[in-house]
């Protein structure tokens, strides 16, 4: 086996051994040409042919490839300890690589690999080709709307003589201006001095350290000075150098279509005006029902009806109100449309089932899903079920999944990829989660309807209230082909937007609110449901990253946002971390806890307050958790009013301070704080063993929500922070009504 994929796996942050890199090389540089081969290959060469456009004589050079460690999808397959590396290279699939000579513009390079095996046989790949590109001036390549700010003398296009690939331009950055936004960002709220990009990516944990995100947007606020912002109006990948190379410039580099143009929307004014201008183009949130502001509870080991109801009983027993339960492990882990242990006949043509098609054995995991849902509703609890936008193909599908996969191919509802014969075939997921799965094109209305109709009985007949629309990051590769004929470079970022929209439309068609709970998104996601910050460990560092994520998502127009209280993965958080995170979560739009699957090992890693209390031995956990969830219940009317006002005014519900005080430089150096609605200032405790905390009070009149003490704004204060208290201050005339809510 020998394999060369010119564009690699499509992993946006890793170069695969078997690819060409750069995919579009620049003239005057060299390119790596790589191959992946099985252990029987002992030598590889590449014939590189140069054919000038002017018809003059070309030339061919033979290149010898050398063994290298095999990297694929961001992971090193070979290598490691030097003593064993040679043995691994000899017995495993290995990498081979060479570099081209310096590349010339004005022609086409064609290359082909020849591999010699240990038995003397020879294998060859087909031919591949590319052209070397050059940056050239193109002052008209950026199409501006709004007050023009592009520095026209610096606009360039990367062009290979046949087509354009990228546009690069600069915007002015003045001293004292602060740049923020860019979708959900974990590392920091302000990105001045940083480099980042906008591509949807599943970064499992440590998003702040890795500086990658599930929910990017090529949109930014520039706060200070006149106040302005911009949106690179593209769904392709964009890179930003925010004063990192030159403190006076924001340099933007964007992938383009073949015409080499890019649209840039510019907005002037205060942050709310800038955000409003952005949302006018991409869509804004609609009001969700007030029950979304109550506590959401979830655990990956709640995988039977008995366990779900036991956990809900424990909430009642401990007097902890709960508004929503999310069941992740409900399905057969195959179709993700049928409850585990349900009996039914396979729908051979892939047609949707109805509730009457199923029987639920009394001894099964879910003996009565409809009865369970009804009982939850009687208790005032809403039900959400987990989803994944894939048709699982490993292990080899059987039963209904096999029929669904065949139907998906037959009905032509799948994303496709080029095949070696010049045609296309169904795309097979290249990510680490559900590898090789088929992926429906949910950006297509017909395909989305085919997919969601299989889930209709869950909404219409069982009564499900929402869906956790997980895993929207699986479309890898610029060469993917969507049903409208567009390619992955233009469409992949839009997939999670369409995914949430499709499930929202299913819910609305049944007369329900479009409550989806997603982690992935892009420009346009603002209009589709709620979001959480994704997978994270239970550490103080992850807690701080999550607060940055919430503030930047809010600054980019995401209204309904939350995170897994104190993280969902690994060993349980300390009692202190759990309580500090609980306090912060009571003052963000979505308050929810969740825990990762732990194979039912003991001791339990559930993030329920009773498990944290039992495991930690800290008898403060339950009463303090109870106190804040009950406070949250009292805040629901305020949150409902504030959400409506936020939508009407384009001032976020979880509001960074620069929205209200853009001219105040202290809001950038202050500890992490935000306004919840117009009238509550929240300053979470983000460090362990903090008996006091520094709080910046911006201009205005403030009242300590716990003590009733009145304080003038424009000052930094230190407040006591016993373990049962988070600094919260009520603003101005609203203080009397709000402070009353904080009294037990």
Can you give a write-up of this model?
The chain starts with a strand and ends with a helix. A hairpin with a 4-residue loop joins strand 15 (156-159) and strand 16 (164-172). The strands form 9 sheets. It has an 8-stranded parallel sheet with strand order 29-26-25-24-33-32-31-30. The longest helix has 29 residues, at 621-649. 23% of the residues lie in helices and 25% in strands. It has 16 helices and 41 strands. The protein has 744 residues and is an alpha+beta fold.
Strand content: 25-35%
Number of helices: 16
Number of separate strands:
41
How many strands, what sense, and barrel or not for the largest sheet?
8 strands, parallel
Low-confidence segments:
77-91
Summing up helix and strand content along with how strands pair, one would put the structural category as alpha+beta
* Average predicted confidence as pLDDT: 96
Shape: globular
Radius of gyration: 28 Å
Q: What gap, in angstroms, lies between the N and C termini?
A: 70 Å
Which percent range fits the helix content? 10-25%
């Amino acid at each position: 086996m020998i394999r060369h994929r010119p564009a690699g796996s499509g992993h946006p942050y890793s170069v695969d051994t078997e690819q060409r890199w750069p995919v579009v090389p620049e003239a005057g540089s060299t390119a790596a040409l790589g191959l992946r081969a099985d252990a029987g290959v002992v030598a590889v060469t590449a014939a590189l042919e140069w054919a000038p456009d002017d018809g003059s004589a070309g030339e061919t050079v033979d290149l010898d490839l050398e063994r290298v460690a095999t990297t694929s999808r961001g992971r090193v397959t070979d290598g490691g300890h030097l003593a064993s590396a040679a043995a691994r290279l000899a017995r495993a699939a290995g990498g081979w690589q060479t570099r081209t000579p310096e590349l010339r513009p004005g022609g086409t390079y064609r290359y082909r690999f020849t591999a010699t095996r240990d038995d003397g046989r020879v294998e060859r790949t087909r031919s591949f080709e590319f052209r070397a590109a050059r940056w050239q001036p193109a002052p008209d390549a950026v199409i501006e709307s709004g007050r023009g700010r592009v520095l026209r003398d610096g606009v360039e296009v990367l062009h290979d003589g046949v087509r354009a690939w990228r546009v690069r331009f600069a915007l002015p950055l003045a001293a004292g201006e602060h740049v923020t936004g860019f979708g959900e960002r974990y590392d920091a709220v302000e990105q001045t001095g940083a480099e980042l990009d906008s591509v949807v990516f599943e970064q499992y944990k440590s998003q702040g350290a890795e500086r990658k995100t599930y929910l990017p947007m090529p949109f930014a606020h520039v706060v200070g000075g006149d106040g302005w912002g911009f949106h690179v109006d593209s769904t392709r990948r964009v890179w930003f150098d925010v004063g990192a190379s030159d403190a006076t410039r924001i340099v933007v580099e964007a992938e383009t279509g073949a015409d080499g143009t890019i649209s840039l929307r510019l907005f002037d004014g205060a942050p709310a005006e800038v955000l409003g201008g952005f949302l006018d183009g991409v869509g804004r949130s609609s009001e969700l029902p007030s029950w979304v502001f109550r506590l959401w509870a979830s655990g990956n080991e709640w995988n039977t009806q008995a366990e779900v109801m036991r956990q809900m009983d424990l909430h009642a027993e401990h007097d902890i109100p709960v508004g929503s339960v999310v069941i992740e492990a409900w399905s057969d882990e195959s179709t993700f449309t049928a409850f585990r242990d349900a009996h039914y006949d396979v729908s051979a043509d892939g047609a949707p089932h109805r509730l009457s098609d199923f029987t639920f054995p009394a001894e099964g995991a879910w003996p009565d899903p409809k009865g369970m849902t009804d009982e939850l509703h009687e208790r005032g609890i809403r039900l959400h079920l987990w989803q994944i936008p894939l048709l699982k193909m490993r292990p080899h599908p059987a039963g209904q999944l096999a029929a669904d996969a065949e139907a998906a191919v037959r009905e032509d509802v799948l994303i496709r990829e080029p095949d070696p014969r010049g045609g296309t075939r169904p795309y097979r997921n290249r990510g680490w989660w559900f590898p090789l799965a088929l992926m429906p094109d949910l950006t297509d209305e017909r395909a989305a309807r085919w997919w969601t109709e299989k889930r209709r009985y869950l909404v219409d007949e069982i009564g499900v209230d929402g869906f956790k629309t997980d895993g929207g990051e699986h479309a890898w590769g610029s060469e993917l082909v969507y049903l409208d004929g567009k390619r992955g470079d233009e469409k992949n970022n839009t997939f999670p937007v369409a995914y949430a929209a499709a499930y929202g439309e299913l819910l609305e068609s049944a007369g329900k609110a479009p409550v989806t709970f997603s982690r992935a998104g892009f420009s346009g996601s603002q209009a589709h449901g709620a979001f959480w910050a994704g997978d994270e460990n239970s550490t103080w560092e992850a807690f701080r990253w999550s607060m940055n994520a919430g503030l930047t998502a809010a600054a980019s127009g995401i209204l309904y946002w939350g995170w897994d209280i104190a993280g969902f993965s690994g060993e349980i958080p300390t009692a202190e971390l759990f309580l500090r995170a609980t306090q912060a979560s009571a003052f963000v739009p979505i308050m929810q806890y969740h825990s990762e699957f732990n194979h039912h090992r003991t001791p339990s890693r559930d993030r329920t307050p009773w498990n944290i209390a039992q495991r930690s031995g800290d008898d403060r956990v339950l009463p303090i958790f109870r106190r804040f969830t009950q406070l949250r219940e009292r805040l629901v009317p305020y949150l409902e009013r504030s959400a409506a006002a936020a939508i009407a005014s384009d001032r976020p519900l979880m509001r960074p301070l620069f929205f209200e005080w853009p001219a105040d430089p202290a809001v950038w150096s202050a500890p992490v704080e935000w306004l919840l609605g117009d009238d509550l200032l929240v300053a979470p405790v983000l460090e362990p063993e903090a008996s006091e905390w520094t709080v910046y009070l911006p201009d205005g009149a403030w009242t300590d929500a716990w003590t009733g003490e009145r304080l003038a704004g424009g000052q930094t204060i230190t407040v006591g922070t016993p373990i049962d208290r988070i600094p919260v201050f009520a603003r101005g005339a609203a203080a009397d009504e709000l402070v009353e809510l904080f009294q037990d």
